[in-house]
Amino acid sequence: MTARIAALPGRAFVAIAGAPGSGKSTLVETLAQDLPGAMILPMDGFHYDDAVLRARDRLPFKGAPDSFDVGGLRSVLERLRGGEAKVAVPVFDRDLEISRGSARIIPAGDGPILVEGNYLLLDEAPWSALDPFFDLTVMIDVPEAELRRRLTARWEHYQLIPDQIARKLDVVDLPNGRRIREGSRAPDLVLRQG
């Protein structure tokens, strides 16, 4: 996959999507090390703040498609496509469970921009409006049993108790994973894992 991205002309935008726990962040970090000038744009930085989700009665469903500022992500993609010298982007801090605004700077350059996130290929508004920005789309496909194992380990690492983990998996993460699997546009490339 590294060679395929490197062969794209100009500053390529690569969407890497998949269910929660599919390994998107790990993959883009590895790719960024192997691709000169590559920059990472994580979709998770566009999570709405907990106060916004609470006001909308959506905090228990944080991570669902409607818990993200898709317009903000689109705006950043437009600015990057437009060749701005420096674009500040938000990054999600999982330890604090919040997005930190302007936490990373993406400078102008020739290296690819690796955009990673669950819903980048979701074939429904407003997510489908992102499609024209991507030169290559990738879906990571992981069996649900393996996702359950990985996500259980993730939430144990963050010291959630078994009831909290069960709720995260069965009400949020795995249903969102099914929505991604069943409702996304066909990618240019599928990576099967697990």
TrEMBL record:
Stored SMART domains: AAA (SM00382)
Keywords tagged on the record: Hydrolase
Domain of life where this protein originates: Bacteria
InterPro entries from the UniProt entry: AAA+_ATPase, P-loop_NTPase
UniProt GO molecular function: hydrolase activity
Limits of the AAA+ ATPase domain: 10-162
Protein name in the entry: Nucleoside triphosphate hydrolase
Organism name: Pseudooceanicola atlanticus
